[in-house]
Write a structure and sequence with these properties.
It is a single chain. The chain has eight helices and 20 strands. The strands form six sheets. Strands 3-20-19-10-12-11 form a six-stranded antiparallel sheet. The chain has a five-stranded antiparallel sheet with strand order 6-7-8-15-13, with no helix packed on it. A hairpin with a 4-residue loop joins β16 and β17.
Length: about 325
Amino acid sequence: MDNTQRVSEDVVHVKTDPKFEKWANVHGFCPNALPHPEKWPARPLLFRLSPGCHDVPVESVCQAWGRFEENNQSKYLGEGETAQGSLPVSTHTFKFETALFVGTGILRLPSELTGEYFKGKNRKSSILVQGKFKKKLSFRTVYTGQEFCHPVKSPGYLVTKAALSLFKTLSPSMEANIVAENDKTMLPNATHFMSPLAGTASVIQITDEKNAPKLSPTTRIVEDLTGLGGDFTDSMKKYPDMEKRIVWRRKFFQKIKNLEKYEFDTKKVWTFDFYNDKLLMDELKLAILGSKYDITKYLAGQPLRILSKIKGTEEYLWNFELWHERQTEVS
């Protein structure tokens, strides 16, 4: 079997609009090919570490980056091996590390294994991230959200305007930018929706190592920022109802001056839960008013990202990608 034939069996091209194909040759975060879906352990989903953003996982059910391409030389997958960098969905935790953060995560979608977590909750997905910061970072600088290496396809001016207005209402500190489809600057990640991590996460729990919750398909964490001191010293007593504590914390961190008062330290264990009630991650569709809307056609050959980074830089705390088989030429 020659190399050309082997490559065609191991990889598949990503569907994209021809007008965006040139971007794939400019930015590393715009792959025009993926491991074949037959190698995806959570098929039809590929949940993976974003190339170039992470150190090799110390211990994980995923395989390390460098398996697929290394020093411009193709490294082919063996029989029965899973796609390089692929991560489990709903079944196991995984470990990851960057220059800024070392931790554990688990992506959870409704299933028999995760049923206890989703029971009684109107949630479509949850991503738990837990770990330690490797450097002290101001709350003002650490953001989370979505970014795209090339423009996304617009669903129309009115829909886009309405969506941005909704996002701004939910997160007034959100910074959003949408690059036109005919953009000539080729700037990476120019299209983005980003907001401060401290005011965006659904739930945040700060503990020491001994009391850190163990992540699993059913783990529910408790909103607890008393470890920050200051305004949060008596927050558990002041807001005994957890949902009210979450609302208060999010509102508190909408103000830049409040973000500037706090920092992520390197001694505590930080656990974040990010859940949503509209995006069906197993289908990459939005569920709104009883209907489902396919978002893959608007992503234009790009993944949905789960990330956190230093604002205005390419320094990531974590950066995970979620692809659907519909985005490949196999479908």
